Every structure is written in structure tokens, then in C-alpha cells.
Amino acid sequence: MPDHSIRDRAYGDRLSPELTACFRALADRRRRLLLYTLVSEPGHQATLDELADHLLAEDPRATEEERTALVTELYHHHLPRLAHQDIVDFDPDEQTVRYRHHALLEELLPLVRRLDAEG
Known about the structure:
This protein is mostly helical. It has one domain (7-118): Orthogonal Bundle (Arc Repressor Mutant, subunit A). It is built from five helices and three strands. Strand 2 and strand 3 form a beta hairpin. Helix 1 packs parallel to helix 5 (103-118) and helix 3 (48-56) packs across helix 4. The longest helix is centred in the middle third of the chain and has 21 residues, at 64-84. The protein is globular.
């Protein structure tokens, strides 16, 4: 019997709010990398600096200016967006991020990660 769990979350021709939130979260490569990192971290949490370091590990030639720009982008754009969608808890004062378990997103992440790896 086929698994229709994702399709069943749609409303006719419209997507459910839950599925729409997942697609919005996964639409941006940086957000996907953040989610891959948080899902694999012990306790599903990290500091803003740890996330930036992990994202920059792909480019060892990144400058301090690029790191600062990335931290700013995460702090002001990506993390608040994920928090608004109830995917992460982001404490801007403590600069900590905790992934909130999200069943539908966890169904989609392995597929999207495989697609990212294939290029």
C-alpha cells in the first residue's frame, strides 16, 4: 500500500499550511544546510556561531567579512523565518537555535538532501 502521507496533507488543489511552511523552509539552500546541521546535532541545537562555522566549512577561503555577513543574514533573515514557521526556536539574545521536531519536514529532508547531493 503506497504511503500518501505528504499528499494527504494537501487540500484539493491547495497545499496545507504545514506543507507550505516546509516548502518555504526548504526553498533556500542556506536554510536547508541549517536544518541538515540542526537535525544531526546532539540535542538538535547549536549557537549562531557554530552554525556559521559549519556553513563556512564548505569554503575554507571565506574571509572574516564573509563570515560576518553570513552571521548577519542568519540572524536577521533565515533564523527568524524558520522560527516564525515553528521549525526552530531562536533566542536572539543568547544566539542559540534549537530544532523543533517537525514530522513532515523530517519526511522531506532526506529526499531534499539527496537531491542537493546530486547537484
